[in-house]
Specification:
By secondary structure, the chain is an alpha/beta fold. The chain contains 9 helices and 9 strands.
């Protein structure tokens, strides 16, 4: 039999577990958060009857509203999926972020600008569900790798008066920062690799697949190019790119950085020596994480 005090403690513990799964992190507390609350397979939108899901991971316990790390997966706009768990985001959870990982419509389901619309809708969803999950909507960081980096740039660089957003997702909270991992930045200049060496003429076949066969394809490539939206008032942008990337040339990020600097926008570029397309070693990954977090602290997204 439980006495009243034990019964009350049991009820409190059960209430904490409702709607979330708490996973204990192995290893020392300095290596990762002690625990993470998981909210999996949440439907955030159903365009055309196609359910789109996201996962939310929050540091447990958290002390007040948390900054939000929205992660967009890569895969050339036509393949790939959001990560199956949170362990790849341990450094950001440890820094106090809640992490939101995103499913979006791939090219086989809907061509451009669908994927951009979906990521914008995730930002809107974060704003609408801030109270439920303890999100700080003034500290939203959108990030992604490869095609996901491109989508993060697009989602974070668009203004709320654009003609791309879906009606139900208009007026999302402003993004506090963008972290782009080796994403294409100009869909008219990213060339396709040539098997015999070097590169062949743009556009890349993956771009053509995502843009689709349409009379306005050149105009859509421009609309879907982050370099088209460079201005001084952008949120701060941190760019990561390997100098030996055989898929998305480093020049894509160099060109974006040059334009950002010319416009007076806040940005930083972390070039990974010998880095291929995201295949960085553990030491390089740790250095990237540290530089990203230092940049976000400097920009006021994280406390010191």
């Amino acid at each position: 039999m439980l006495d009243d005090s034990n019964r009350a403690g049991l009820i409190a513990r059960l209430a904490l577990l409702m709607g979330a799964v708490l996973t204990t992190t192995p290893g020392a507390a300095s290596d990762a958060p002690p625990s993470v609350a998981e909210h999996r397979d949440l439907t955030y939108m159903s365009p055309g009857g196609h359910d789109l899901h996201l996962d939310v991971y929050t540091p447990a316990p958290s002390h007040g509203p948390t900054p939000v790390w929205i992660h967009v997966h890569g895969g050339a706009w036509w393949k790939g999926a959001r990560p199956e768990g949170w362990k790849g985001f341990s450094a950001y959870l440890d820094a106090g972020f809640s992490v939101v990982t995103v499913q979006y419509r791939l090219a086989g389901i809907a061509t451009a600008p669908a994927a951009v619309q979906d990521v914008r809708c995730v930002i809107s969803w974060v704003g609408k569900h801030a109270d439920r999950f303890g999100f700080d909507t003034k500290r939203i960081v959108v990030t992604g790798s490869s095609a996901g980096g491109h989508l993060a740039l697009m989602a974070g660089m668009l203004t709320n008066d654009n003609d791309i957003d879906l009606p139900e997702c208009r007026e999302p909270p402003p993004v506090a920062a963008i972290v782009d991992f080796y994403g294409p930045t100009d869909l008219d200049t990213w060339p396709a690799p040539n098997p015999s060496g070097g590169f062949i003429q743009a556009p890349h076949s993956s771009i053509a697949r995502w843009i689709g066969e349409r009379a306005d394809a050149p105009a859509m490539r421009k609309r879907m190019s982050p370099v088209s939206y460079v201005r001084a008032s952008l949120p701060p942008i941190f760019i990561v790119h390997g100098d030996a990337d055989p898929v998305v040339p480093l020049q894509e990020s160099l060109n974006l950085k040059q334009k950002l600097d010319a416009a007076g926008a806040r940005s930083a570029l972390h070039v990974v020596p010998g880095g291929a397309h995201g295949k960085f070693n553990d030491q390089q990954e740790r250095a990237i994480e540290q530089d990203v977090l230092n940049f976000l602290r400097h920009q006021g997204v994280l406390g010191e």
